[in-house]
Write a structure and sequence with these properties.
The complex is a heterodimer of chains A (101) and B (492).
Chain A (H helix, E strand, L loop, with lengths): L1 H18 L5 H5 L16 H15 L16 H24 L1
Helix pairs in contact in A: 1-3, 1-4
Chain B lengths: L3 H12 L3 E5 L2 E4 H17 L7 E5 L4 H12 L3 E4 L6 H10 L4 E4 L4 H10 L5 E4 L8 H9 L9 E7 L7 E6 H15 L6 E4 L6 H14 L2 E4 L5 H10 L4 E4 L1 H9 L13 E4 L6 H11 L4 E6 L3 E5 L11 E5 L3 E6 L12 E7 L10 H7 E2 L2 E10 L5 E6 L4 E3 L2 E3 L1 H9 L4 E10 L5 E9 L5 H8 L11 E4 L18
Parallel strand pairs in B: 3-4, 3-5, 5-6, 9-10, 9-11, 11-12, 12-13, 24-25
Antiparallel strand pairs in B: 1-2, 7-8, 13-14, 14-15, 15-20, 16-17, 17-19, 18-19, 19-20, 21-22, 23-24
The chains are: A mainly alpha (101), B alpha/beta (492).
Chain lengths: 101, 492
């Protein structure tokens, strides 16, 4: 179940990379979960990672903390997707608890 | 008050107990800032810094940057702020062109500095700010007695300007240049010692340095420097410290407006949001206004001239795209293509006359003749004026890429790509993005098999990351005009 969700998030991340950062679709077609977002992978710089994060926040209605914006977060597309998965889960959990009070 | 040390002494005297800088947990009054500067002056004197020496700064925004900058200029030496994102080759170039004899930096850059200085042919020492020691009382006395006589027209700072051709040019600005700019800027923005500045635009660049760091100090205001742009940290400082003046680049305003806050931060303390270094698109400005209830005003300047104009119009919503009117002491003319003064609404090249501007490029006679004419500096920017005298910038005569406020000379990228064995010819261009920035795109003609990835890897470590192309396209040949000029517009 989580694997499916993670893959769906990866696809959304790729969509944001194309729509917000105009990354060439051909580069993303050749990419997978293990493709780095920085340097030798997609090649994002620090400003572009912020644009990507703003797109993710809007798409998944989450807030990414400054402290989480480390090189490790952008190590791979899969790593970022895993972070988003956990973040959305914690947001959903929080909402559920808030509702149950 | 003719020099920066004299300016600082006056400001300290008038504002001794007021808070000068809040850098995280460090809260420093003007009197304490002066003590820190004197301590570092003694340290730098001990390691042999003399008047006229070039001392580079490779430091993030922060208390150490401010202290180091003023310590350098107090000794009559020349400060050379360097972008902390530069890589080895770039640092070597700037250290060499600036004939730098000492590099002040932090431990986090020690490895980079070791690599760079091991390749530097001219003698250059490194000084880590954390190593500063307390100056002995005798040294304070010595320094007080041995006031360095400083010529107000001597260079106080070297900065580097991207040009249309060649490598970045060294801009030597004097004490007089900087003081003229600061006094006019403070007057235009009506800044007082009750203002609170956030310093998030890099101090290594003219925008962050002059319009945040120096303007704040000159006014006796309080500066909140931030080492890097982190959205929530910036929002938190603005809200909690009740920041009143926020001077940055369009990318930063855009990102703050796009951030998904759990609770929208309260920016009501801001009385001035000013964008410089790149055009602020009207759509982004409207977006910022929808979120935070205020418009961003545009400021226009260059490394050569300092601040030229700023839009302080009361009816800002009617002139969002204007860079306003010239600040005091600055004369702006627009010259049409035929060399005559442009009429209202007519586009031409913006030329500037100002006591804050340099008069020539050192050692570059040909370029100097080209851009410094009849007492004007010809900016290479295309602009026009409306009936109210408001200035609008409409493009560039000279071509460069503007990435997050950093001007990138495309030739630097082209020359690097063309130094690759498989590249026959390369063109670099700036492609506008949806978030008010430009991304670097390269179009390459190959003479052998080579992938986009291979070329990007080739650039890594040779130029700063922000200069590395986001996209590389391959073509059989480049589109050219009948005269052989590359048609860059067809490559967007």
């Amino acid at each position: 179940m989580d694997d499916d969700a993670r893959l769906a998030i990866e696809e959304t991340i790729k969509h944001i990379l194309i729509s917000e950062l105009e990354v060439s679709p051909s580069i993303l077609t050749a990419s997978d979960s293990n493709t780095p977002l920085l340097g030798r992978g997609i090649g994002l710089d620090s400003m572009e990672t912020l644009v990507l994060v703003a797109g993710i926040e809007k798409e998944f209605d989450i807030q990414v903390e400054d402290a989480d914006l480390t090189v490790d977060l952008f190590r791979t597309i899969g790593n970022l997707a895993e972070y988003v998965l956990q973040k959305t889960a914690s947001y959903n959990g929080r909402s559920a608890r808030e509702v149950s009070r | 008050m003719n020099t920066l040390p004299e300016m600082l002494a006056t400001v300290v005297k008038q504002n001794a107990k007021r808070t000068a800088i809040v850098d995280g947990e460090k809260v420093v009054s003007y009197a304490a800032l002066e003590e820190r500067i004197v301590t570092l002056v003694a340290d730098l004197h001990r390691v042999g810094v003399c008047p006229g020496d070039r001392v580079a700064l490779l430091l993030p925004n922060g208390l150490d940057f401010v202290t180091s900058y003023f310590a350098i200029v107090t000794l009559g030496a020349i400060a050379v702020p360097l972008n902390e994102h530069y890589q080895q080759t770039e640092l070597l170039y700037f250290l060499d062109v600036g004939r730098v004899s000492l590099l002040i930096t932090a431990r986090e850059f020690s490895r980079l500095c070791q690599h760079v200085l091991s390749r530097q042919t001219e003698a250059c020492d490194v000084f880590f700010v954390e190593d500063e020691t307390q100056a002995a009382a005798t040294e304070f006395r010595f320094l007080n007695e041995r006031k360095v006589a400083i010529d107000p027209n001597a260079p106080v700072m070297y900065q580097f300007s991207s040009g249309s051709t060649g490598k970045p040019k060294c801009i030597a600005r004097t004490h007089t240049n900087l003081l003229c700019e600061l006094d006019s800027l403070i007057q235009a923005l009506n800044v007082t010692n009750t203002d609170r500045f956030i310093g998030v635009a890099p101090f290594s660049h003219v925008n962050g340095l002059m319009r945040s760091m120096m303007a704040s100090i000159r006014a006796g205001a309080t500066l909140y420097p931030l080492a890097k742009f982190e959205r929530q940290a910036v929002a938190e400082v603005i809200e909690q410290a009740k920041i009143s003046v926020f001077i940055a680049v369009p990318f930063m305003f855009s990102m703050l407006a796009k951030t998904n806050y759990r609770r929208r931060p309260d920016f009501s303390s801001l009385r001035l949001c000013i964008s410089a270094s790149a055009p602020m698109p009207q759509k982004l400005n409207q977006h910022f206004h929808e979120h935070f209830g205020m418009y961003v005003r545009q400021l226009y300047g260059s490394t050569e001239t300092g601040t030229i104009s700023v839009n302080v119009s009361a009816a800002i919503e009617k002139s969002l795209e204007s860079v306003g009117t010239p600040i005091a002491g600055v004369e702006v003319e627009i010259f049409a293509e035929n060399g005559n003064l442009a009429k209202v609404g007519e586009t031409g090249e913006v030329a500037v006359k100002s006591h804050a501007a340099i008069k020539s490029y050192k050692g570059l006679e040909e370029v100097t003749k080209e851009v410094f004419r009849d007492g004007y500096f010809f900016t290479g920017d295309l602009g026009k004026r409306d009936e109210d005298g408001l200035l609008y910038l409409v493009g560039r005569k000279k071509f460069f890429i503007n990435k997050g406020g950093y001007k990138i000379d495309p030739r630097e990228i082209e020359e690097l790509l063309e130094s690759h064995a498989k590249v026959e010819e390369a063109v670099a261009i700036g492609v506008p993005t949806t978030y008010g920035d430009e991304k670097v795109k390269a179009v390459v003609v190959l003479n052998g098999s080579c992938s986009e990835q291979e070329l990007i890897e080739y650039c890594q470590g040779r130029i700063a990351n922000f200069k590395i192309p986001s996209v590389i396209e391959f073509m059989e040949s480049l589109p050219r005009s009948p005269t052989g000029k590359i048609r860059k517009a067809l490559l967007l």
